[in-house]
Amino acid sequence: MARYIGPACKLCRREGMKLYLKGDKCYSPKCPFEARGYPPGQHGKDATFRRRKLSDYAMQLREKQKARRIYGIMERQFRRYFHEAERRTGLTGENLLILLETRLDNVVYRLGLADSRAQARQLVEQGHFLVNGREVNIPSFALRPADNIALRVNSKKSTYFKDRRELIGKRNVPSWLNLDADELEGRVLTLPTRQEIDVPIQEQLIVEFYSR
Which domains does the chain possess? Predict the structure, then answer.
């Protein structure tokens, strides 16, 4: 499966904001965005270049790219999510964010079992998690209300997850999820509402981009 393997901080610089793609490093003074917040490329430092007015298309494209980069999804898969969101009842933009939020890798990240979505994706691919008692190693696995996410018995013995117990309360768990910090297990209580999805995305611009 194709995935971006370049420098994550370059993506933040391109979007002009922190996307928190590298976990704790993004919160520290060592974050490269702090020193180089301008866009990458030979014109990145040019203030006139940065102040140029973006067209409607450019703003829509940037918002779509930002969403893709936050959730770590390639273009073809992201387009499939959009078409699925269109088929569902309700607002397409909100449906899209709900589909992205209920991916297994994102839920693992939201529960605080990983420092970033990229790390969560890697842990899922390594087969550390059970969903309703069955091993699932597909990061895009769609979770539903009442689904239970637990660690495999052998995974609980690993150094990583033993150390994770000390850090588990570091990130606030969204109200649509429940976390058992002692067992490192989570549960999807309900689908998230737009107010519960704290991502800096204007989903209507994404809808407009694909509706051109």
Answer: 8-100+198-210 (1.10.1050.10), 103-190 (3.10.290.10)
